[in-house]
Automatic annotation (TrEMBL):
GO terms for cellular component: extracellular region. PANTHER family: ALPHA-GLUCURONIDASE A (PTHR39207). Keywords: Carbohydrate metabolism, Glycosidase, Hydrolase, Polysaccharide degradation, Xylan degradation. It catalyses: Hydrolysis of (1->2)-alpha-D-(4-O-methyl)glucuronosyl links in the main chain of hardwood xylans. SUPFAM superfamilies: (Trans)glycosidases, beta-N-acetylhexosaminidase-like domain. The keyword Disulfide bond does not apply. It comes from Gracilibacillus halotolerans. Residues 120-447 form the Glycosyl hydrolase family 67 catalytic domain. This is Xylan alpha-1,2-glucuronidase. Residues 8-116 form the Alpha glucuronidase N-terminal domain. Homodimer.
């Protein structure tokens, strides 16, 4: 497929600016690659695609010293590693006559090439450059939640590109294109199956599937991504002939050792396992009275000889809670389970922790577990898939949300202990760390359902590479590469993206309380949907007020999991930020926020405003009708109309519900039902 929808940000539109065209043409008349590997093959292929499309020219390959562009891995060229840069780093230096891209590894060279292509797509001059780049985060990983039957858990963009009808897809072109997209933004690892490993997927680690999985691994290898698999902790019982999966049992240990050896026979650079254990009914060490350190270390021992990793998820909580029980607090769970185990995990175990303590809500505080374990490797998990943020029907540019998370100061080692530094391994001496996200792609032609949701995938990669990039900068980069170069287009879509998360929040559950969504589906409002359920997700609205009391004195004590001054800041009603008020406190509807409004009036105002803002988005988009291609224009137009209906439903249900509960009228007397 070669359409504008399909090509996402690798459009490689023809360069019309004459000066730049001549400049690029000259450079690409003589290109020398010093390197010989699958990654260098990808470099060659990518340059051929890009140069053909941008300049309608063939790359002039050469082996001579007078090349205009030289691309090399520093070690192949017998030059010292580019100083001060890590293994994935690169330099791009250009003096007008010659441009050199030198990576500290093949992967570094590949990233350098994608950097150059990005500059060309953004129509920047490449004659005088002195660029030094390296990723901040060692791990920059994507988790697919794809199932063998072709479905994608929490997928909103069609079916899987990896599997269909119980089989791995035969035609792997699309997987290769996905690898190109991911690599172009610096992603270096991927797990290709759902963290919930069902019956047949448990066999992925057997001969039945390994040959084909090895093929997929080699596609990703060519683009610098290491392949991981999610595994079923009970595999020794499910696919072996053991009666136990007890991690301290000798036969179980040996079973995994043999299994791992077999996997490495097929995939010599296999990354390791992603494990969801003792979480939402998945099996784990608890069944044998063992803890998470026992469980993960057993797998770590098997993987260690091959330098494999265990990525152990911390999404562990009681999902059979009694709603009558006000003392159990799901938000506390990850910290309570894992923090006491600090120091017991092997050095090739990495804990994967969701950004918030609940589950990817539109607004949550940062998980207090991140950074709280100084002797245990940690990675942060984000969700690009818009499970609770509009299913890629509603527009929600998530980079600003993630930026807030990265910049949160935990004070774990005094001021400046930001999440950004913790996950980069700069606060504690982690051996492995970084960022991982649940993918938002599927086999829809445009990959992400909503065309503008491509920006979230792009942005995740860029932010994982460099968390200090600004949200606007990332959006502009993405826009320049994705849509025709036109200031109006850029400004209009930029405004839409930048306003979209606050708009979504406006018509969603208010002030950080979360969860008022249709159960299971997680799209559209259902205010009491989770209120009397077992999931631990409540708003406690009554006729007087609402919110969850998580304070030390009268609530669940969750605030105690933070360091000072965050602990007191959240615990104290006067200092708790408005946007998280109902996450931490139960307050009367007439409680006055720092904004000067009462809680109830805030609810009415934001919900009326949110809907109006969606009408504003529609108006903005309509202005682009003549400048954009029909396919992408119509795709977004259709989504915006569905977003409008969703926002209307949220507005009216939330306002009506709280009006009926509280009996307090809207000061502005607008229609409430
Ligand atoms: C959420 C999501 C599930 C997913 C789970 C997880 O609860 O709704 O579909 O399996 O997160 O992260 O494991």
């Amino acid at each position: 497929m070669d359409t504008k929808m399909y090509n996402m940000w690798l459009q490689y539109d023809s360069i019309n600016n004459q000066t730049l065209r001549e400049q690029y043409t000259e450079f690409f008349s003589k290109v020398r690659l010093i390197g010989n590997s699958e990654i260098f093959d990808s470099i060659k292929e990518e340059l051929e695609i890009a140069v053909d499309k941008m300049l309608q020219q063939k790359v002039g390959w050469t082996a001579s010293d007078d090349a205009k562009i030289v691309i090399a891995n520093s070690s192949d060229w017998n030059i010292k590693a580019v100083e001060g840069l890590n293994e994935e780093g690169y330099t791009i230096v250009s003096n007008g006559n010659q441009l050199k891209i030198i990576g500290n590894s093949d992967r570094g060279a590949l990233y350098g090439v994608f950097h150059l292509l990005r500059m060309m797509q953004m129509q920047e001059s490449i004659t005088t450059l002195s660029i030094k780049e390296q990723p901040t985060n060692p791990f920059r990983m994507i988790n697919q939640w794809d199932n063998l039957d072709g479905s994608v858990e929490r997928g909103y963009s069609g079916n899987s590109i990896f599997y269909e009808n119980g089989k791995i897809v035969e035609d792997k072109t699309r997987i290769k294109d996905y690898a190109r997209f991911l690599s172009s933004v610096g992603i270096n690892a991927i797990s290709i199956n759902n963290v919930n490993v069902w019956e047949e997927e448990t066999y992925f680690i057997t001969k039945k599937y390994l040959p084909e999985i090895a093929e997929i691994a080699s596609i990703f290898r060519g683009y610098g991504l290491q392949l991981y698999l999610s595994i079923n902790f009970a595999s020794p019982i499910a696919i072996g002939d053991l009666e136990t999966a007890d991690p301290l049992d000798g036969s179980v240990k040996n079973w995994w050792k043999d299994k791992v050896r077999e996997i490495y026979d097929f995939i010599p650079d296999f990354g390791g396992f992603v494990v969801k254990a003792d979480s939402e009914h998945r099996p784990g060490p608890f069944s044998y009275d063992r803890d998470h350190a026992d469980g993960s270390n057993m797998l770590a021992e098997a993987l260690e000889p091959f330098d494999g990793k265990v990525i152990w998820r911390c999404f562990v909580y009681n999902c059979l809670q009694d709603w009558r029980d006000r003392s159990t607090d799901r938000a506390r769970a990850a910290y309570d389970h894992f923090k006491p185990l600090d120091g017991r995990f092997h050095s090739n175990v990495i804990l994967q922790i969701k950004n918030g303590p609940m589950d990817f809500q539109v607004r949550e505080p940062v998980s207090p577990l991140i950074g709280a374990m100084s002797e245990t490797n940690q990675m942060m998990e984000l969700q690009i898939a818009q499970e609770y943020t509009g299913h890629q029907i509603d527009l929600c540019y998530l980079i600003p949300q993630w930026k807030e998370v990265f910049s949160f100061d935990t004070y774990i080692q005094g001021e400046g202990s930001t999440i950004e530094k913790i996950v980069a391994g700069q606060i504690h001496p982690y051996r492995h760390s970084g960022v991982v996200a649940v993918s938002n792609i599927g086999n829809d032609e445009n990959w992400t359902g909503h065309t503008l949701a491509q920006a979230n995938l792009y942005g995740f990669g860029r932010l994982a590479w460099n968390p200090s990039l600004e949200s606007e900068t990332i959006a502009k980069e993405w826009l320049k590469q994705t849509f025709p170069q036109n200031n109006d287009v850029e400004q209009t879509i930029l405004d839409m993206l930048m306003s979209s998360w606050p708009i979504y929040e406006n018509y969603n559950a208010p002030l950080g309380v979360g969860w008022m969504v249709t159960t299971h589906l997680h799209y559209g409002p259902s205010i009491d949907g989770y209120e009397y359920s077992r999931w631990g997700t409540y708003h406690f609205a009554d006729r007087d007020g609402m919110g969850v009391d998580r304070t030390k004195e009268t609530g669940t004590g969750y605030t105690e999991q933070y360091e000072e001054p965050n602990r007191s800041m959240y615990n104290n009603l006067d200092t708790c930020p408005d946007e998280l008020l109902l996450f931490f406190h139960h307050v009367p509807y007439k409680h006055t926020l720092k904004s000067g409004k009462t809680v109830i009036q805030h609810i009415y105002d934001t919900h009326f405003e949110g809907y109006e803002q969606v009408l504003g988005l529609q108006k903005k988009w309509d202005q682009l009708e003549r400048v954009l291609d029909e396919e992408r224009f119509n795709n977004v137009k259709e989504r915006l109309e569905r977003q409008r209906l969703n926002a209307r439903e949220w507005r009216d249900q939330i306002n009506t519900y709280f009006y009926r509960k509280s009996g307090i009228a809207d000061e502005k007397n607008r229609t409430i039902y």
